[in-house]
Amino acid sequence: MKTRILLAILAVVIAGLIAVPWVASYFYIFIFTEILILGLFAASFNLVFGYTGMLSFGHAAFFGVGSYAMALVLIHLEWPFLISLLASMGAAALLALIIGFFCVRLNEVYFAMLTLAFGMMVFAIAYQWRSVTNGSDGLAGFSLGSFGLGLDLTLGNPAVYYHVVLAIVGVASVILYVICRSSFGMILRAIRQNPERVSFAGLNVRTYRLVAFVIAGAFAGLAGGLIAPFLRVASPELLHWSMSAEPILMAILGGTGYFLGPFIGAAVFVLLETWITSFTESWMLVLGVILALMVIFFRKGLLGTVVDWWMEVRK
Amino acid sequence: MSGIGSALLNSLDIGLLLFIIAVGLNIVFGVLNIINFAHGALYMLGAYLAFTLINIVGMPFWAALLLAPLGVAILAVLIDRFLLRYIYSRDVADSLLLTFALLLIINESVRMIWGSGIQVVQPPPLLAGSMSIMGSFVPTYSLFVIAMGLLLLAGLWYLFNRTRIGRIMRAAALDRDMAEALCINTRLVVTGVFAFGAWLAAVGGVVAAPMRALDPGMGDKIIIESFIVVVIGGLGSFPGALLGALILGLIHGFGGRYFPEVNMLLPFMGMALVLLFKPNGIMGKGAAA
Amino acid sequence: MTNPVLTISNLTKRFGGNTAVSGINLDVMPKETIAIIGPNGAGKTTFYNMVSGRMQPSEGSVVLDGKDITGLPPHKISRLGVSRSFQINNIFPEMTVQENVEVVLSAYHGHSRKLFNIASRNTGIQQEAIELLKRLGIDNLKAQRAEVISYGDKRLLEIAMVLATRPKLVLLDEPTAGMTPDETRRTTKLVKSLADSGDYTFLVTEHDMDVVFGLADRILVMHRGEKLFAGTPEEVKNHPEVRRAYLGEEDDETEESNV
């Protein structure tokens, strides 16, 4: 009964999302595109943090690399969109494998420091390597060619692009959800709660953490690949630790204990950001204050707090 | 002085400054088991407070050196009393998140108060100019930085090994519950240590101010450097912080001179190298998950 | 002449200047139950840590069924058939009691590698988990969150998780610690029936001498990191050094409490 209500709500939300271009202005189409992409980014982060218990401060490295991969592929190889997205995922996954290899075997404090440090290293590389990345100016001037799969879509049209993003994020989220609900996902949750017990059950915890890290990196790369054509530029800012702060806040805002938490957090985040940046440049300050308040008082996030409250009411 | 000589001096200079900053990070970790992500921001705050005291209020450098770190330490006490105390009994991750939030808040506050532009602090007249050492001219201020570094090094060594407070801090680091059972007011120790770490960061900031231009991004740069120092040297190890800082100083001193293109990457590469062979850092222990 | 399941030779652990365990030699025969006793600080848990892979020995070797497992990481030793419980409850607090066992079963059966199944539909593992909980007498708690059940039940859950990997050798670290007398009796009976079934070989560290004498085929007495004596319960009771070093103190206590 409860599941049916939730599924009904989900169906309504999805229907609403599909209907956006026909009922809302271009402004909201852009907002929702951003929410979907960042939601996927935050959900990929939550696989590592909420599920596996690893707090990474460098997740933007994979997001940014996905963007750069998309830009580079479109500029130099002009591949169809879908194939280019695979390139984004592949590049990000490879980077996650390398960084993860160094970081995953260390305790949570080291892990936090090192993911920040390695993330900034990638930023430094993008900033300096003018010949490939065009340095601080970033890569621009790429245009979307064909979509792939023989489908002829005008990806330049924001409404079309929005639907494409909705479809891709939808499919990606389902895959991510299945992974979270699988036996593998159950082990990840166990690792967060008691990694030692998992190793005494016969599993190499390091390997599982690395696999989770790489999967998360791949999906972050996918999100990055989606955002490059949306922003029309792949720039180093996407790799900076301030970008890594965004999925952290979104996941905590929505609730790290639930799969949909990061998506809800992304929606609230984007709407808040749009509103607050309209009258102040100190968005980072607000971000910091919100994060602090959430961590201290509402650690379970919006979804977690609502669910807890609902449980109380039902008693 | 030959190129190598001046690179060496440069290394010592940078290295000891990094030591001052990184050791505060290390001390806070050793006793509180958290990494203060806002440590670099507190360093920056020290520098900017000094700027205000010197350039706007008109105080001499020495007064700023005394007052600015004190101001930052007081701020740290407030942060601990009103924010961090909620988090200490929780997961380490929550502390990391909160100090990260503080980083965002302090960074942006500095930008709002002092603007995004570059500010400059002049060294005091006593330390301006250069001295002749072994036939070359060396900036006097560099020698001052080295002297300050050595002074703090000696002071900290004495504090930890010879004083009661130092012993208390080491006890609390080793076993918080036991320390409490021995009637050591660990709440006070925690606040004190956090404030002390902030004070050290701010001292580093004031000392660094005349050497480098002040901009709102300086905190970010230094926190990454501090992380690298602490990873190379080993988290929680006092000699490790010194070793890591000196190594990083050498990397900067020689890298800046002989490999300028990859200079930004060399510290990271050094860190990765150490991680491959000694994940605990050269002198650290217990970094494995 | 059967071969021992576990052969420990000269097992030693030093921490800096302090020797926690020194030169332990022991042969554990299949299906027997050996109790390890000794005052706190005698090195019992360090001994376990070395056998289960949690710590690297400074010297000596651990051989399981002819295979040298000295210094292997815990997950490899677990795969080879050694399973241990912990002195302090080591469970998954936010999961249900049943899920706790399912996690271990999933690991054991290799399901943990499956990324695309739905764990909650895995009836085979769920059945096996319930069976195991039944055996430990706590299947009525299967849907409870593990952190809210009683301390004694948590210890039983711990044992269920230990058995889930179908080990050859089970190391129980003070299984009845902190339990009420009722729970202690229940647990002792349970471990005895498991031991009698012949499916496992047990090493049990304990402080409660009633439990020890109720379970043990042989007793290893440790003192200050060394093996003081190993033998049958009768031999141990009558061994003068053991009485002096360990049981002797116990006798005094019993006498005092009888006054």
Task: Compute the CA-based radius of gyration of chain B.
Answer: 19 Å
What is the CATH class name of the largest domain in chain C?
Alpha Beta
Strand percent estimate of chain B: under 5%
What structural category arises from helix and sheet content of chain B?
A: mainly alpha
Q: Total number of helical segments of chain B?
A: 11
Second rung of CATH, namely the architecture of the largest domain in chain C: 3-Layer(aba) Sandwich
Separation of the first and last Cα atoms of chain C: 50 Å
Share of helix among residues of chain C? 25-40%
Number of helices, counting only DSSP H or I runs of 4 residues or more of chain C: 9
Poorly predicted tracts of residues of chain C: 251-259
CATH topology group of the largest domain in chain C: Rossmann fold
Whole-number mean pLDDT of chain C: 87
Quaternary status? heterotrimer
Mean pLDDT of chain B: 86
Q: List SSEs of chain B in N-to-C order.
A: HHHHEEHHHHHHH
Query: Main sheet of chain B?
Result: 2 strands, antiparallel
Radius of gyration of chain C: 19 Å
Basic shape of chain C: globular
Can you put this structure into words, describing what you see?
The complex is a heterotrimer of chains A (315), B (289) and C (259). Chain A is an all-alpha fold and 315 residues long. In chain A, 77% of the residues lie in helices and 1% in strands. Chain A has a domain at 26-237. A two-stranded antiparallel ribbon of chain A has the order 1-2. Chain A is globular. The two termini of chain A are 18 Å apart. The mean pLDDT of chain A is 92. With 289 residues, chain B is an all-alpha fold. Helix content of chain B is 71%, strand content 3%. Chain B contains eleven helices and two strands, in the order ααααββααααααα. Chain B has helices at residues 3-32, 39-56, 61-82, 92-114, 140-162, 164-174, 176-181, 186-208, 218-233, 238-258, 266-277; strands at residues 130-133, 136-139. The longest helix of chain B is centred in the first third of the chain and has 30 residues, at 3-32. The radius of gyration of chain B is 19 Å and the shape is globular. With 259 residues, chain C is an alpha/beta fold. Chain C has two domains: 1-81 and 167-259, P-loop containing nucleotide triphosphate hydrolases (Rossmann fold); 92-165, no CATH class. Chain C contains nine helices and ten strands. In chain C, the strands form two sheets. A six-stranded mixed β-sheet of chain C has the order 6-7-8-3-9-10, with helices on both faces. Classes of the chains: A mainly alpha (315), B mainly alpha (289), C alpha/beta (259). The interface between A and B is large, with 45 and 46 residues.
